[in-house]
Description:
Elements: H1 13-32, H2 46-55, H3 57-84, H4 89-133, H5 139-169, H6 171-181, H7 186-205, H8 211-240
Helix pairs in contact: 1-3, 1-8, 2-4, 3-4, 4-5, 4-6, 5-7, 6-7, 7-8
Amino acid sequence: MTTAGTPTGKLDAVAKWSLIIGPLLVIIFNFLMPTNGIEPINPEDSDSYIKALGDDAGIAQIYAVAILLGIILYTRAIIGLWRIAPEGTSRYRLLIGGLGSISALALWAIVLGLTLAETSVAEKLGTAVSGAQAGVAGAAEQAAAATIAKALHAALFGVYQTATYVAYLSLIPLGGGLALSGIIRKEWGWAIALIGLTTVVLTSIFPVKTEEGVMIFGIMALIWGIVFAAMGLMIAKEDMD
């Protein structure tokens, strides 16, 4: 194994399994969200987006919580990697990447909190629309719910863009630190840094609130999840040898 440093120990069991399970939870449940999938709904079409959330509100809320759990586990894994990094440049870079991951966790929690709120309002909006169509006095409730849902939608994607920047910028020092740490092959570390840089550049050109941007983010998130889960499996295998 080509490495540039010597880890201070083995990755603890919680961090090891968090590194595998966390990213898998994120990519699986992000894909299953009613607004995502193979053909994600254009976030700029707020009416369609809100309707999709409202139609499957219960499932969307469960998936959002699962995604947040995945991000928490991923962050725990990054802290574990920092703990075993050798002193020097590698450990310093992993510290910067870890702090970025913790900051990103806070932002993703806000994103998913806004998603839960938008989903709840979207469900109420669907009920109000049905009531208005049935001749019930629901026009005022429908208008109010629609206004709140669109405000939450705008706020959601504003924070989403910020969270994307923080999360993927943190991969650059994180990957650089891993490349020098001796924990994994250096190629894995540089690949992680490249994923971070590429995502930041692409989502700057195509913001996540656009149809192209949300598709690009989905693809890069999938690559991120596969790389980290595979890295976790590789570390687990080496520890068993």
